[in-house]
């Protein structure tokens, strides 16, 4: 019911609704992927063994829109508000942002920025821990399936591979729409 009211209000304002999430890619968290070898031999996948990490903040809207930023520092209010500002500028209209209840999203700095930019961005927090309701989680899963962090040799290379994958997804609107077709997030396809 809350989604219906939100979508009606967004439609009346000529705004769009975007689901936001952040995630991290770690080189030591994923297996090195699949490979091949001649019959009878075990495939060997060479990895560096280094611990590398990049963070991603992304947003998807059911009408083909995908925004993202890749960063190596911690997730802070400055990162969050810069991302919201980027979304608002690129959307060229008001954006209703649906996000998890992360402490950064609820913090003083984020609230102050949102009050100052109320005509551009409005934040709606999801119920308690409920990642299954966020279509952006499907983008995160797609990213982790397709960007093999354990094969990167340095943080710059991992960040480059991540950006390249996300830019590719931006140019594949049918795949972005597909995130909203999963049964558990179908409600978000407005």
CATH topology: Nucleotidyltransferase, domain 5
Largest sheet: 5 strands, mixed
User: Radius of gyration in whole Å, from Cα?
Assistant: 18 Å
CATH H-level superfamily title? Ribonuclease H-like superfamily/Ribonuclease H
Average pLDDT:
84
Number of domains: 1
Secondary-structure element string: HEEEHEHHEHHH
Secondary-structure map with pairings?
Blueprint: H1 2-13, E1 16-26, E2 53-60, E3 66-71, H2 77-91, E4 95-99, H3 103-106, H4 108-116, E5 121-125, H5 136-146, H6 155-170, H7 173-178
Parallel strand pairs: 1-4, 4-5
Antiparallel strand pairs: 1-2, 2-3
Helix pairs in contact: 2-4
Domain Tc1-like transposase DDE: 17-158
InterPro entries: RNaseH_sf, Tc1-like_DDE_dom, Transpos_IS630-like
Protein name: IS630 family transposase
Description:
Pfam families: DDE_3. Residues 17-158 form the Tc1-like transposase DDE domain. The longest helix has 16 residues, at 155-170. The relative contact order is 0.20. Strands 3-2-1-4-5 form a five-stranded mixed beta sheet, with helices on both faces. It has a single domain, classed as Ribonuclease H-like superfamily/Ribonuclease H (Nucleotidyltransferase, domain 5), CATH 3.30.420.10. With 190 residues, it is of the alpha/beta class. The chain is 38% helix and 18% strand. It has helices at residues 2-13, 77-91, 103-106, 108-116, 136-146, 155-170, 173-178, and strands at residues 16-26, 53-60, 66-71, 95-99, 121-125. The protein has seven helices and five strands; from the N terminus they run H-E-E-E-H-E-H-H-E-H-H-H. Helix 2 (77-91) packs parallel to helix 4 (108-116).
């Amino acid at each position: 019911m809350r989604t219906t009211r939100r979508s009606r209000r967004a439609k009346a304002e000529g705004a769009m609704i975007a689901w936001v999430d952040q995630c991290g890619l770690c080189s030591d968290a994923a297996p090195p992927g699949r490979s091949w070898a001649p019959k009878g031999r075990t495939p060997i996948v060479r990895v560096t063994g280094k611990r590398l990490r990049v963070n991603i903040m992304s947003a998807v809207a059911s009408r083909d829109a995908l925004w993202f930023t890749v960063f190596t520092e911690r997730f802070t209010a400055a990162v969050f508000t810069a991302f919201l500002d980027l979304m608002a500028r690129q959307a060229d209209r008001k954006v209703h942002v649906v996000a998890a209840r992360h402490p950064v999203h609820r913090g003083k700095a984020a609230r102050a920025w949102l009050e100052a930019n109320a005509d551009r961005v409005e934040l709606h927090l999801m119920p308690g821990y409920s990642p299954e309701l966020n279509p952006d989680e499907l983008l995160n899963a797609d990213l982790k399936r397709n960007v093999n962090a354990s094969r990167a040799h340095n943080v710059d290379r991992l960040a480059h591979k991540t950006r390249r994958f996300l830019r590719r997804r931006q140019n594949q609107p049918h795949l972005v729409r597909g995130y909203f077709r999963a049964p558990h997030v179908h409600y978000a396809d407005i």
